[in-house]
Amino acid sequence: MIMNQSIENLMNEHRQIEQVLGALQTFAGRVAQEPGSGRETTAQFATFFREFADRRHHGKEEDRLFQKMVEYGFPREFGPVAVMLHEHEEGRGHVKALAAIGAGSGPLSGSETEAIRAHALAFAPLLRGHIQKEDNVLYPMAQQGLPAAELEALNESCAAFEREVMSPARVFQLEALADALIVSYPPELAQMAASSACFSCAGHAQAA
Question: Domain with 25 in it: what CATH number?
Fold first, then answer.
């Protein structure tokens, strides 16, 4: 089966989001040594996840893909769509907490440092596992369950959503921010691989 273009675009965005998640984990391991600059960096991570990962990426899923899946018989109250929506909300709670710390002033306090670590180290595996479920379970279900004409229409629908919520210039800025964070806090490959391997375990397979 040929992959739908809008779904392929979502998967490509996943790869970038995964890299920034890895950078966030690296930052969480260093934040205690960076009290002076840590607040600004926390704000930068929150900005990327709030605008690129949530407003733009999750927005396309919730307002376009998931909505179309519900129209064609996928329940919103339970099953894969419900799980994805719940995890979006759970992730927003972590990002909101990081953004609140980033919006403060002065060097990070000890309690703020611990809060950053706690939220970052909970959020990263949550969103990475979420991505794996979408790539391997929900997106294939959408390609199989939606008519070809609806999948074709989804391409323009998602493109229209992107134009509505964010300018190309802002997308470019956020992608540049992602690149800078990845360079400053290189993801640890072993840590990322461990999260991917966890998705294959029996508990995640049942949840998916």
Answer: 1.20.120.520
Evaluate whether 81 touches 69 at the Cβ level (below 8 Å). Answer: yes
Distance (Å, rounded) from C-alpha 30 to C-alpha 153?
A: 45
Domain that holds residue 62: 5-207
What pTM value is reported for the model? 0.89
Sign of CA dihedral 130, 136, 138, 142: positive
Alpha-carbon span 28 to 46, nearest angstrom: 13
CA dihedral 181, 184, 185, 186 (to 10 degrees): 100
Give the 3-state secondary structure of the chain.
CCCCHHHHHHHHHHHHHHHHHHHHHHHHHHHHHCCCCHHHHHHHHHHHHHHHHHHHHHHHHHHHHHHHHHHCCCCCCCCHHHHHHHHHHHHHHHHHHHHHHHCCCCCCCHHHHHHHHHHHHHHHHHHHHHHHHHHHHHHHHHHHHCCHHHHHHHHHHHHHHHHHHCCHHHHHHHHHHHHHHHHHCCCCHHHHHHHHHHHCCHHHHHHC
pLDDT tens, residue by residue, 65-75? 999 999 999 99
Could you give the CA distance from residue 195 to residue 198 in angstroms, rounded to a whole number? 5
* Count of structural domains within the chain: 1
pLDDT in tens, 29-43: 999 888 788 999 999
Q: Which residues neighbour 178 within 8 Å (Cβ) at sequence distance 6 or greater?
A: 16, 19, 20, 48, 52
